[in-house]
């Protein structure tokens, strides 16, 4: 393991520069106006191993918002708060093959509920399950959970991105009102959307994501204390969704070419894990047509291919 980390260290800067060239082929997300300001050519990666070692290369100092990556952790928190039966009464367990914000197929699952917790409709339903007495408290619980996993008490919102999405998120609003109509959302719709937009706007760096990923790679064990902070079963559920739905409607292709559980966000972030071994955080804001970081996916293909990380 240590030897491999050394090998990664020696090749990573070069591989990052090679993958960075692909950013040109992609586009920075602009449907959230504030995200359009992201640096298109940036690419950074941070890898942490279970023994406290780490490697990084490229633009690791760049801050970006978690966006859809946050959905993995709100799912875990909802499972910890209410258990599997409650969560899966609101969302299904199957991939859709559609865009992350699609309105298609919402009617098709019986009983009527979003296909899975990683598409927007499913994630909004899951966010509504996070416990707390007020929406402020529920948002704070989510933020504190993210801080614990990242081992970083200063994690906070990017308020510009939060406001930008809150002002323009009409599609997510319509999904949420649909869920309300179907009885899947019990609470005030705008309050749930506020919690959702906030957790999508938590600002991180690659090392924060790598640390969060490492907890998953360890089956829920906090690498600093050795104590379990997420039940193993819930980590297992999260890893399954990351594998089947984590890269949106490119999850099958990613499973073939990389073969690791991963979750991407429209800010260009990707969190991935090599179970039992590494937590990986990366960012490359230029996205391909399916909404995943072009350079980031390329870099993960290279790493997984050369070091034989595919789980399959
Ligand atoms: N906040 C974003 C949205 O709801 C998250 C989507 C994403 O990263 N794919 O549209």
Automatic annotation (TrEMBL):
NCBIfam families the record matches: Gln_ase
Gene3D superfamilies reported for this sequence: DD-peptidase/beta-lactamase superfamily (3.40.710.10)
Assigned EC number: 3.5.1.2
Keywords of this entry: Acetylation, Hydrolase
Protein name per Swiss-Prot or TrEMBL: Glutaminase
Gene symbol of the encoding locus: glsA
Catalytic activity: L-glutamine + H2O = L-glutamate + NH4(+)
Broad enzyme group: hydrolase
Binding-site list for substrate: 68, 120, 165, 172, 196, 248, 266
């Amino acid at each position: 393991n240590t030897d491999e980390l050394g090998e990664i260290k020696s090749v990573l800067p070069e591989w990052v520069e090679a993958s960075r060239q692909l950013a040109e082929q992609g586009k920075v997300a602009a449907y959230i106006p504030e995200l359009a300001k992201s640096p298109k050519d940036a690419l950074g990666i941070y890898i942490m191993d279970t023994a406290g070692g780490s490697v990084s290369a490229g633009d690791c100092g760049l801050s970006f918002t978690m966006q859809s990556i946050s959905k993995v952790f709100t799912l875990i928190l909802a499972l910890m708060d209410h258990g599997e039966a409650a969560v899966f009464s609101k969302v299904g367990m199957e991939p859709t093959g559609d865009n992350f914000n699609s309105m298609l197929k919402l009617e098709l699952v019986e009983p009527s509920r979003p296909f899975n917790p990683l598409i927007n409709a499913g994630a909004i339903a899951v966010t509504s399950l996070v416990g707390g007495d007020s929406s402020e408290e529920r948002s704070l619980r989510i933020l504190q959970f993210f801080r614990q996993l990242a081992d970083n008490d200063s994690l906070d919102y990017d308020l510009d991105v939060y406001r930008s999405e809150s002002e323009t998120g009409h599609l997510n609003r319509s999904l949420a009102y649909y869920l309300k109509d179907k009885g899947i959302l019990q609470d005030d719709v705008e309050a749930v959307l506020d919690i959702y937009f906030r957790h999508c706007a938590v600002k991180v760096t690659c090392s924060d994501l790598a640390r969060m990923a490492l907890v998953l790679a360890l089956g829920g064990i906090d690498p600093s204390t050795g104590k379990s902070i997420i039940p193993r079963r819930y980590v297992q559920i999260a890893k399954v969704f990351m594998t089947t739905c984590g890269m949106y409607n490119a999850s099958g292709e990613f499973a073939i070419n990389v073969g690791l559980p991963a979750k991407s966000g429209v800010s260009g972030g990707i969190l991935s894990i090599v179970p039992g071994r590494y937590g990986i955080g990366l960012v490359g804001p230029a996205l391909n047509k399916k909404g995943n970081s072009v350079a980031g996916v390329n870099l993960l293909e290279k790493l997984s291919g050369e070091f034989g990380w595919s789980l399959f």
